[in-house]
Amino acid sequence: MKKSMTILVPTDFSPASRTGIRFAIQWARQQKSKLILANVLNIVRMTRWSPGQYEAFVQEQRRTTLDALRRLAAEVCRQMDFRRQDMSTVLIDGLSADISLQDYCKSRPDIDMICMGTRGAGRIRKLLGTHTGNLIRHSDIPVIAVPAAYRAKSIKNILYASDLAAQGPELKDVVDIARGLKAALSISHITWSTDTVLDTSFMNKVWSKQYGYPVKMHYDEADSSISVTGNLKSVIRRRKPSLVVLFTHHDRSGIQRLLFPSEAESLSFITTVPLLVLGKPHS
Predict the structure, then answer these.
(1) Beta partners for 143?
(2) Which residues, in sequence order, are bridge partners of residue 279?
């Protein structure tokens, strides 16, 4: 387990993105972390501009945006009593925020996760994808989606929503997260009428001993009249976690994603608590 982390925190200067910054700061308070506050800058070139005019415009836009980014970092650090030297700022050039952020992370292997505020999405944007949804589907590193209405508070309990398909590798990662944050860890497995269930008290003892960290598993009976995402939302409402952890497949084709959207991506549109999404281990 890493004792310290580096978290990339994208911002477009909106109130929703500020929520993501505040959550990242809370994480850094509980687990020593360096934060990178980033803005993706997309500068459109007017056809009538000469090369010199365009370059002057680019330089001015970069200067003013970087100044605004630094002011935002100073303001939020001051409001949350966070050390300014633990939050750096960077401008990332690119046309699409999600692609540019992924490319930047590939150039910075020290970055452990991306934390961003999300406003949810309307029906059309859900179909076409949002920056957060696209990152959840494709990012090689974990992504945290923080709902805009969330108010930063201690991360005291983590809910890992599991399908039990790759329990060993996934649980190890989740235990490392919980240990780093010193948070309680519970597992929820949604069961349907035909499912076989395990002895939870026995599994709790086995896993707690195996990973050296207390684990508490629950079976949550599904409501067959609603979707898997709806059932997950119901479990979250009932369990009241500080953070929800899900794993998602990154290797599905476009048509599979269209017909069977990722539960992690779907939940990111409606979640009321921060959602941490990791890629499922390759089979």
Answers:
(1) 114, 277
(2) 248
Residue 178 sits in the same domain as residue 233: yes
Classify residue 152: in a domain, yes or no: no
Span 144-177, pLDDT tens digits: 989 888 888 999 999 998 887 767 889 999 999 9
Q: What is the pLDDT of residue 163?
A: 81
User: How many Cβ atoms sit within 10 Å of the Cβ of residue 177?
Assistant: 23
Q: In what order do the strands lie in the sheet with 143-147?
A: 87-93, 33-41, 5-10, 113-118, 143-147, 275-279, 243-248, 157-161, 184-191, 215-221
Distance of CA 4 to the CA centre of its chain: 17
CA distance 191 to 196: 8
The mean predicted confidence, pLDDT, of the chain is 84
Whether 52 shows a pLDDT value over 50: the answer reads yes
User: What's the token pair of residue 73?
Assistant: 């970092």
Asked if residue 175 and residue 92 are part of one domain, the reply reads no
Chain segment 222-272, per-residue pLDDT in tens: 888 887 778 888 888 899 999 999 888 655 443 333 333 455 555 555 568
Q: Tokens representing 100? A: 């540019």
85, 114, 147 — which closes off a domain? 147
Question: Does residue 194 belong to any structural domain of this protein?
Answer: yes
CA dist 184 → 138, 189, 214, 243 (Å): 29, 17, 8, 10
Closest CA to 219 of 208, 207, 205, 203: 203
Classify strands 243-248 and 275-279 as parallel, antiparallel or unpaired: parallel
